[in-house]
Design goal:
The complex is a heterodimer. Chain A is mainly beta. In chain A, 6% of the residues lie in helices and 30% in strands. Chain A is built from three helices and eleven strands; from the N terminus they run E-E-E-H-E-E-H-E-E-E-E-E-E-H. In chain A, the strands form two sheets. In chain A, strands 1, 4, 5, 8, 9 and 10 form a six-stranded mixed beta sheet that branches. In chain A, strands 3-2-11-6-7 form a five-stranded mixed beta sheet. In chain A, a hairpin with a 2-residue loop joins strand 8 and strand 9. The two termini of chain A are 17 Å apart. The two termini of chain B are 35 Å apart. Chain B is globular, with a radius of gyration of 19 Å. Chain B has helices at residues 109-114, 152-164, 185-195, 220-226, 242-254, and strands at 36-47, 50-55, 68-74, 80-86, 96-101, 121-128, 142-147, 170-176, 198-203, 235-241, 262-267. Classes of the chains: A mainly beta, B alpha/beta. At the A-B interface, helix 3 of A face strand 3, strand 4, strand 6, helix 5 and strand 11 of B.
Chain lengths: 200, 271
């Protein structure tokens, strides 16, 4: 039973309640959250790899990656720090394209980033048109502080799962925790079930 | 899912020692964080737009300096709002202190600043986060760099250092607009004179007459003067607005500090 906060009226969001997960509020900025300095990434040496539990690892240079079929999508983003930003516009390559006809017994994946950040996800959550490697936002190249040149985009989970500065995914036979998941944050991170922290 | 929310953590091959969840009740099983009622004992005006709120200590075990809590407000019709705030007190302190900057466009901070008074109860859960944390057992020189209300978690670290009686070399570089915007001013002066902690202020907008400290935004020269040589491998914490943190962290990398030695916490106007 919640305690009523004397004199608190709040500022109700001007959106339908089915678009704002519990405990979130709407922001019109694009806040930044990261654990350390923004890494410097040279596009000439950038590549994206699929490694781990796979017979033939895959790898793309920046040029090769940019020749893959791109999609531009509109998605709502929910950050564990409580802000949500609706109708964000992203351009990227669907994970379905990157994982197409790949044979694996993996159940989970670890996304690896330049700078050492990692985050873990069930493989099923990045398939079926639910995740992208995004290289653009609002028709502009993705800015470094927002994860550019490329970040994972998994809008149906809290935004820390959308690893910035992504350089590859490692397919795994089971689950293993990534960076924030070892540091107190939930293993799965569904905003609609408010899975923010360990034990939620 | 093989591990839901903090079960045994099988295969944490790339774990790092820092992540050991010390001080956490039932840490190995990842105990849930419940909403608890926290009673306000006192509010203190820190600056014209910053207040500290002193709470009766919640029943959880000691937090680690640098951790935050979530606050939840509930209106009479059940509408709720949540925000995160860094803990400003040391784990050894008798009370739990949060320091809140009033953001004019904010939803929660104006309530905490304008309305809350002793005797009120708020809902709180935590402590949260195991990365932007400092413990007195950490031996490397401690460098804290704060912009504005980014100084809040550093008060917890400084008080923890004092309570633990450790002598790890410690510096705080704190950027504020004017002398009147300096949060915890008296306490920081005490700390510096009694505790061999070096506190370096820079006032970016206006300096009092006879000011002997820095009077500009944090820049490379200032960081070269204040940060230890990278060879001494300081543990570096940077907290403040996003643009401040971006600039400071990237300049520290420019002058040779290892990116992994720099921990950042950023905040935007999220009220």
């Amino acid at each position: 039973m919640a305690i009523i906060s004397r004199g608190f009226t709040g500022r109700r969001p001007e959106v339908e309640s089915n678009r704002l997960p519990p405990g979130q509020y709407i922001t019109h900025d694009f806040p930044v959250l990261s654990a350390g300095p923004t890494p410097r990434i040279d596009l000439d040496s950038w590549n994206f790899e699929i490694t781990g539990l796979v017979d033939e690892p895959r790898s793309w240079t920046w040029e090769e990656f940019n020749s893959l079929p791109m999609e531009t999508v509109t998605q709502d983003i929910h950050c564990v720090t409580k802000w949500s930003k609706l109708d964000m516009n992203w351009t990227g390559v669907s994970l379905d394209v990157l994982l197409e006809r790949l044979e694996t017994d993996a159940t989970h994946l670890m996304a690896h980033s330049y700078g050492g950040y990692t985050t873990n996800l069930p493989l099923a959550d990045v398939m079926g048109g639910r995740s992208w490697i995004a290289i653009g936002h609002d028709n502009q190249p993705l800015a470094p502080e927002h994860g550019g040149p490329a970040r994972l985009l998994v809008p149906h989970l809290y935004f820390w799962k959308s690893a910035k500065w992504v350089r590859g995914i490692e397919l795994m036979a089971g689950d293993r925790r990534g960076f924030w998941e070892r540091n107190g944050y939930h293993d799965y991170g569904d905003p609609w079930r408010e899975q923010r922290y360990w034990g939620d | 899912m093989a591990t839901r929310g903090g079960s045994s953590g099988i295969g944490e091959t790339d774990g790092e020692p820092l992540c050991a969840p010390l001080h956490r009740r039932g840490s190995l099983s990842g105990a849930a964080l419940y909403w608890l009622a926290a009673k306000v004992l006192e509010t203190r005006v820190e600056t014209h737009r910053v207040k500290s709120i002193v709470f009766e200590r919640p029943t959880w075990e000691r937090h680690i300096p640098g951790q935050h809590v979530d606050i939840r407000l509930t209106a009479e019709d059940g509408y709720q709002a949540q925000r995160s705030y860094s803990i400003a007190s040391a784990p050894e302190d008798d009370h739990l202190v949060l320091t809140v900057e009033r953001l004019p466009e904010g939803e929660v901070s104006p309530y905490l600043f304008d309305v809350i008074e002793p005797g009120d109860e708020l809902e709180m859960r935590g402590p949260i986060g195991l990365y932007f944390v400092w413990k007195s057992v950490m031996a490397e020189p401690l460098l804290m760099i704060a912009g504005g209300s980014g100084v809040v978690p550093f008060r917890a670290m400084l008080r923890h250092r004092l309570a633990a009686g450790v002598e790890v070399p410690t510096r705080l570089l704190y950027s504020a607009r004017t002398i009147d915007d300096v949060i915890y001013r008296d306490e920081l002066e005490d700390r510096e004179s009694s505790d061999e902690t070096e506190i370096v202020l820079t006032l970016t907008r206006e300096q009092p007459a006879g000011w002997g400290g820095y009077g500009r935004r944090v820049d490379r020269t200032m960081l070269e003067q204040v940060a230890w040589d990278p060879d001494r491998s300081p543990r570096i914490y940077v907290c403040g607005p996003t643009s401040f943190v971006e600039k400071v962290a990237s300049t520290l990398v420019d002058i040779g500090h290892h990116p992994m030695s720099i921990r950042t916490e950023r905040f935007g106007p999220t009220g």
